Amino acid sequence: MPDTTDIDPRSDAAASTNEKFAEEAARLKSRKRRLAIALVIGVVGSIFGGVEIHDRVTNIHEVDARIGGDLITVSSRVAGWVTSISVTEGDDIKPGTVLMTIDSRESALKARELEAQIASLRAEKERTLAEKRLVDKETASKLKSEQARLVGAQVTVSSLEPQLELAKREHERSKSLFKTRVVSRRQLDQAETELKKIEREHRIAVADLHSAEAKLSEVEAERERLRVLDSAVAVYIHREQELQAKLDEQRLDHSDRTIRSAINGVVDKTFVEVGEYVTPGQRLALIHDPDVIWIDANIKETDIRKTKVGDVVQVSVDAYPDREFTGKVQVIGNATTAEFALLPSPNPSGNFTKITQRLPVRIAIDQQDRLLRPGMMVEIKIDVDQ
Length: 386
Known about the structure:
Blueprint: H1 9-58, E1 59-75, E2 80-85, E3 92-93, E4 98-102, H2 105-179, H3 185-256, E5 258-260, E6 265-270, E7 277-278, E8 283-300, E9 312-317, E10 320-332, E11 358-365, E12 377-383
Antiparallel strand pairs: 1-8, 1-12, 2-4, 2-7, 3-6, 4-5, 6-8, 8-11, 9-10, 9-12, 10-11
């Protein structure tokens, strides 16, 4: 028969009691640990919640913002075939940099033709002016001479007219006295002779006066040619001005066939190839100034009252998550974006769902090493607690 060991009931009860105390202590310890963890989590959550609430109160967040810039479409004022393209996408350009050229042969020929016409017209004008100077020189002296002759003839006639009147009166008086036998026949004959002499001199003087007037009229008629020549010169000048205007227009056409940049910037894209025929206004290239950029964002109307021009803006660029950029609110829009929609949304039925509208805001930002490029997505945080 095997040996058996006697078990003390009190010993079993004590062991059971110890196990219960141990389990209770473990549960209590676990509960304290959970409470501590919950307390820590609550404190941390409160801290983060407070920070988040403070951040929401003092800042305006927007994730749908983009970098904007002036993208300039380069086009041509003239039509023609593209003969060369001097730039490629990504090239830096300055004002005056040649981007491409359009066939200019016909334009150059027309300009030379107009230049030849102007040269011929100017030569004809100079010939007419030389003729005018010659006619003026020849007739000016004649005019003065004939004017002086006319004045002399007028003076002679004027001086003889009183003498003629006196001789006529003396002759009539002598005739009357001869009838009464107061004067002799000889005295009467002398009076008649004197009258005939003065009449002859008067007729000669009047004839000279008429001759001087006729000659002066001839000279004045010759000088009328000066007016004709002046009119011809005026026509030449007017025609020259017309041709010069056409030449200037043609030179502008020739100049426009060299497409140049108007800004400092970079070439974004070219849309034509050498040999293509382009028309006026057709898009040839796209360029922009990388130093002139901004950020376009749309702010909720409920936040716009807290925003003002000059507010500091923290900018996070998706392309550079490890860098921070800073800007300032520059312009706040005066109408919501919905007002600029191509398709308005009228509500004649009366059904209405209220949607928070947004207003455009432009944010000024400085370029940094040309990292910021138009179209890039950014996130902004406007500090409104200033």
